[in-house]
Amino acid sequence: MVKVLPASRTAHADVRVDNASQYLKRCYVVERQLMRTLAARFVDTSQWDFKRQLSQDMWETSRHADALRTRVLELRYPRRDVDKKYDPDMLALVAECAKGQDSLEFIGGVYGTLLPELVRAYQDYLDQTDPLDDAPSVYILRHIIADKQAQIERMRALAEQVAPRLFEATAEWQDYLRQCCAAVGGISGQGTRTPPPLNHSLAGRPAYAIGRSVQRDSRWRPALFHLPHENKYDVEGRKAWQRIEALDKRVAMQVWSAISHFNEIWAAEVVAASMWDFDTQPWDFYLDLARWSWDETRHSTMGYRALQGWGWNVPDLIPWGNALYNAMGPMPPIQRLALLYYYEDGLLRAGTKQIEIKILESAQDDGGVQDMDFDWADEAIHVSYGYTWLRHLLGDNNAGKEELKRLTDEAREIIAAFVAQHKDDPQAKLAPYFDRLHDVIASMLQDIPDDNLDVHWAPVVADEEVLKA
Amino acid sequence: MGQFTVRLAKSGAQFVVESGETILEAAERAGVLLAFSCRGGTCRSCLTRVLSGCAEHDPEYADELNIDAGELADHYRLLCSALACSDIELEK
Ligand code: FES
Ligand SMILES: [Fe+2]
Ligand SMILES: [Fe+2]
Q1: Could you say which DSSP state residue A80 is in?
Q2: Looking at the whole model, is its pTM more than 0.90?
């Protein structure tokens, strides 16, 4: 016999550091893979309202994954294993979610099954753990739960407007995923395991593969390009645009920036596709690209908001192109990133944003100025991401630099060839858009005092070559 | 250390940079438009070649800048993070 004091309080025997890190690692794996899956399905989704929401939720998911990963490491989890030894059950579960046959079914599965299952796993953890000993986990999980619940509510409200009955119509898929989840003991792994639903009518689909071309929302007419600088062959389009410029260069800048922002969605798609295509990069690669991609969706939304703010019927008046993403479709992922980096870096080095903001200030377009100002701050971060990760991928040495140049030059040639190949395509003609737009704009103009800003603005583009006839 | 003069070779513009002030700060103060974005040495918008004179990156964070050894050897500097140590001329 030995002597002891009685335990000062009771504690759950299973709530120990190693168990906590294992549990949260499982959740991290789900969040990480869900983030990559949301990125890919964002690319594949054309319905604009759903697309925006998937992008935002993808970014929030990256924050959740990051917080969990950090906490897992704090809980004595081996540093060398945190991005290895992913739980195969969790990988398989998210891989099943990715297989929704279209965007609606995918959304039904994620927001109807996977996210509620995740919330339950986090809630179970909170119910078991000690709020003092494990306070940092409690803080993180409370915030993640609040975010996830908001995501579910937002998507349900959106579906109500855009695709009522989405959740009813995808009930069978949700049920299948629920059974997949139960078969592995839930996301916690602590539930009773039921037999896997191998005989379910929706089981056994092939692995999801990301699309190499995108379509825009069906409310818009199909279009390849959005502004005349993209297509040197569209002489009529350029002339029609010049009529808008002739109204006042300030007006042209206001409209140009809104249309440009709106069309930045291709950049969001390129980055999101990279998050899917690369699957073994360091965690910070995904965290940075998640932010990059969501930023570009935000920029696109800024443009959309401005165009709507003028009271315009955006699908009718504004071209929404898909040529940039689709022309890059056959390129290897690294080459698409290289080209995007080339464009973004070129625009910032030319001081484009600074000039544009001055002109928008001169137009007293407060919303336009604010959008461009925050866009500019984001773009600076993107260039830094591009610089960092392209060096990581290609080598931080002269050979890496040369390869970056080779990839970029070749990509520019591919884009130029795509434009030439489509020069007679009716979807490449912008004059009808700008003719309609000209009349709408002309009917809305108002006078403000002239600040005598000498507006030296012509379409500023990253790739000057595209303007050379 | 005192004041130095910065001259832009292409535009001919000139401005004074005070001791302890970055070249970009001095340009902004003088109303000379130079491309920049992050003001933190990471976006490379302000990367510029120094044609003559001496400019060094702020030693406090010189090793966190997005510029490589080859560029430094070729006299490129990030103006948002560079201090003048003599009169200088920039390739701008
Ligand atoms: S302003 Fe970004 S590196 Fe200088
Ligand atoms: Fe952008
Ligand atoms: Fe960007």
Answers
A1: G
A2: yes
CA-nearest residue to B40 within chain A is A380
Shortest distance between the Cα of B1 and any Cα of chain A, in A, equals: 30
CA–CA gap between residue A175 and residue A190 (Å, rounded): 20
pLDDT band at A230 (very low <50, low <70, confident <90, very high): confident
In chain A, the domains with their CATH numbers are: 17-183 (1.20.910.10), 228-468 (1.20.1260)
Q: Which of B10, B34, B39, B43 to mutate to test the interface with A (most CBs of A within 10 A)?
A: B43
Return the pLDDT at A456.
Answer: 75
Complex ipTM: 0.96
A231 and A225 in contact (C-beta within 8 Å)? Answer: yes
* Run of H or E including B14: strand B14-17
Comparing CA positions, the residue from B37, B74, B86, B17 lying closest to residue A357 is B37
Predicted local confidence at residue A278, as pLDDT? 97
Nearest to A380 by CA among B41, B26, B72, B69: B41
SS3 content of chain A, % helix, strand, coil (to 5): 70, 0, 30
Average pLDDT score over residue span B51-76: 97
Distance CA A196, CA A203 (A): 10
* Chain Cα centroid distance, residue B9: 13
User: Residue A468 above 80 pLDDT?
Assistant: no
Q: Between chain A and chain B, how many beta carbons pairs sit less than 8 Å apart?
A: 48
| Domain span at B84 | 4-90
Question: What does DSSP assign to residue A279?
Answer: -
Structure tokens at A210: 């990301």
Q: What are A453's two structure tokens?
A: 């800003």
The pLDDT of residue A466: 53
Question: What distance in Å separates the CA atoms of residue A216 and residue A402, rounded to the nearest whole number?
Answer: 35
Q: Which ligand is nearest to the CA of A354?
A: 1
Rounded Cα gap, residues A154 and A163, in angstroms:
13
B11/A contact by beta carbon, under 8 A: no
CATH number, domain of B66, equals 3.10.20.30
Residue A96 and residue A113: Cα distance in Å, rounded? 12
Q: How many domains does chain B have?
A: 1
Residues with CB under 6 A from ligand 1: A 380; B 36-39, 41-46, 78, 80
**Taking the CB of residue A3, how many other CB atoms lie within 10 A of it?**
4
Q: What type of residue is A462?
A: A
Alpha-carbon distance of A425 to A281, in angstroms, equals: 39
Weakest-pLDDT range from A287-301, A330-344, A438-452, A453-467: A453-467
